[in-house]
Each structure stands twice: as C-alpha cells, then as structure tokens.
Design a protein that fits this description.
The chain is α/β, with parallel strands linked by helices. The chain has two domains: 90 residues, no CATH class; 212 residues, no CATH class. It has eleven helices and eight strands. The strands form two sheets. It has a four-stranded mixed β-sheet with strand order 1-2-4-3, covered by helices on one side. Helix 3 packs antiparallel against helix 4, helix 3 packs across helix 6 and helix 4 packs across helix 6. 36% of the residues are buried. The mean pLDDT is 89. The structure holds zinc ion.
C-alpha cells in the first residue's frame, strides 16, 4: 500500500496513514475510503518517464491510478498526506465546488488533523491571500512597561509593507473560476499560492462553526439536486458571510483571520521586518519609567 525506497520511510508513512485516514473521513461529510496506494518519490512524477509539472508541489492525488504521490523531502509529510487523503476521499457531490475551493477544503482538514503545523499553514495561506489582493502591511507598535498598569503606548506605529509581486493583483472572483490545484493550470507559482490562500480563507470562514464542513457539503448536495454545474458564487459568499466580490469586502475578514499564532509565524517567515520596524521607533530613554522592558504589539492589514 505504501511504496518507498526506504523500508523505514514506508513503515513511517503507513503509520501516518492509519492514524489519519479515519479522522479525515469523520471530518469530511460525504467522504469514503477508496482503495489507494501511497508512493514516496524523490522527484514527483506520475509515470516513470514523464516529467510532470509538479516541481513546486509536495504531493498530488492521481485519481485514475488511485494513488497519492508524496515528495520524500516534503517539509510536512503528514500534513501533505492528509491534504491528498482529502482529495482521495471526496464523494461525487463535492465535485460541484467551483475553482480552487477543493484545495481550501483539503487545507482546512489538514490544519485540524495536524495542529502542530496549523499556524504555519494558516499564516502561509492567509499571507498569500493578502499578496493576491495587493500587499500585506504589518504594523508594529512599541510600548513601555508600566509597572502594575496597562502597557503605555510610547510611539506611533511603524508599518512595513510586504509585496507579493503579484501583478496584476487577483480579483476574488478568480478563486471561483480558476482551478489552481490542477498541474496544468498554467498559473505562475505566486498566483497559484494566492488562489490557494483565498480558497483557504473562504473555506475557513464557512467551516468556522461547530458543524465544520457540514454546511458547505449541504450546499454541494443542494446544487447537485438542482442539477447546477457548480455551487453558485452567491451561496458561497453568503455562507462565508462576505458581502461581495470586491477586494475591499474581503480584506477586513482577512486581517481578522490572523491570530497571535499566525502573527508569530509571520515573524518567523519575515524576520527582517521586525528589526527594520524597531529601527524606526523611539525606545524609552534609560532611567525613564518602564525603560527596563520593551513590549511590542503587532497586527496585519491587507492593503
Ligand atoms: Zn490539493
């Protein structure tokens, strides 16, 4: 069932598979266990002699072959396995999800089954979504420590603008139209990542209640029953509590989606910005009250 050059790795991944598969089925309504194989490869390829367009991927699901391919060196092997397991388990009802949204479902499930790397995946997806819509502004505020009281704001904030280099920027409608998950999508790496990010943002909003993916699945079933080719965009926007398709209608929600855990990941992803922001802020003079400590506050703003 699991094929790898190293027997140790094969056993390791077989263990992951048995740990995670039932959890995928329980988190995804209308999913089932199809027979499948998992192949670990140093370089991802579907057939032995075919060089595919998988150089930026850590895994893919080959439906016709019933096979998950994983890159041996993938940074998060279990998370990648879970992502591909979701693709492999979705029933036909899910096929009416438009554009890139299935990728968002796979990522959403991964963050729940692999909590140790969830903040890192969320931060990566959400920042990519911000880059897709324009840029990401990180505001840093410096505070003095005031003994016994709330931290006192010392200075106005410094803000750093991170550009994702996506030009022209992405319009939210594209996440419903473009299938960024296809290996032949023809999209550049950064555009693809941004679409995955926007899809994750949308699914995360829809699935945020206790019933998880249930309401999204119901929309798929309803669209199928009405013989619609895809779930209408309006239904999805309503389920995600988004008012429309203007970037300005998505950006406040994106900013709110970053919690402390994702902000910490951003510092790890872009360590230089913190130093350059602090360079521009006045620090308390020695001897002044609270000068023995510096406190930071940060937040993000999609721009
Ligand atoms: Zn995928």
């Amino acid at each position: 069932m699991v094929r790898a050059d190293s027997p140790f790795l094969a056993t390791h991944v077989a263990g992951m598979l048995s740990r995670t598969r039932d959890r995928v089925i329980s988190l995804v309504p209308g999913s089932s266990k199809a027979p499948l194989e998992v192949w670990l490869q140093d370089e991802l390829q579907l057939y032995r002699f075919k060089r595919g367009s998988y150089e930026h991927a850590d895994g893919f699901w080959a439906e016709e072959a019933g096979r998950i391919h994983l890159r041996t060196e993938a940074r998060h092997l279990e998370r990648t396995l879970v992502h591909e397991l979701v693709h492999s388990s979705l029933s036909d009802a899910w096929s009416v999800l438009p554009g890139t949204l299935e990728e968002g479902v796979c990522d959403w499930v991964s963050t729940h089954i692999c909590p140790h790397s969830a903040a890192q995946l969320r931060a990566g997806r959400l920042s990519a979504a911000c880059f897709g819509l324009g840029s990401l502004e990180i505001e840093v505020e410096l505070r003095s420590a005031s003994p016994g009281g709330p931290a006192e704001v010392l200075a106005s904030y410094a803000s750093i603008l991170l550009e994702g280099g996506i030009d022209p920027s992405i319009s939210p409608i594209e996440v419903f139209q473009l299938e960024a998950g296809r290996s032949n999508s023809g999209l550049s790496g950064p555009r693809k990542k941004a679409l995955y990010g926007l899809a994750f943002f949308l699914i995360d909003r829809i699935a945020s209640s206790e019933s998880g993916l249930e309401s999204l699945y119901e929309l798929c079933v309803r669209a199928k029953a009405q013989e619609l080719p895809v779930v209408p965009t309006d239904w999805l926007l309503e389920a995600a509590d988004l008012e429309g398709l203007e970037p300005a209608q998505w950006k406040p929600g994106l900013a709110e989606a970053f919690s402390g855990a994702e902000l910490a990941e951003l510092v790890a992803m872009y360590p230089d910005f913190l130093g350059s922001a602090i360079d521009r802020l006045p620090v308390p003079t020695s001897g002044a009250s609270g000068s023995e400590e510096l406190r930071f506050a940060m937040r993000v703003n999609p721009r």
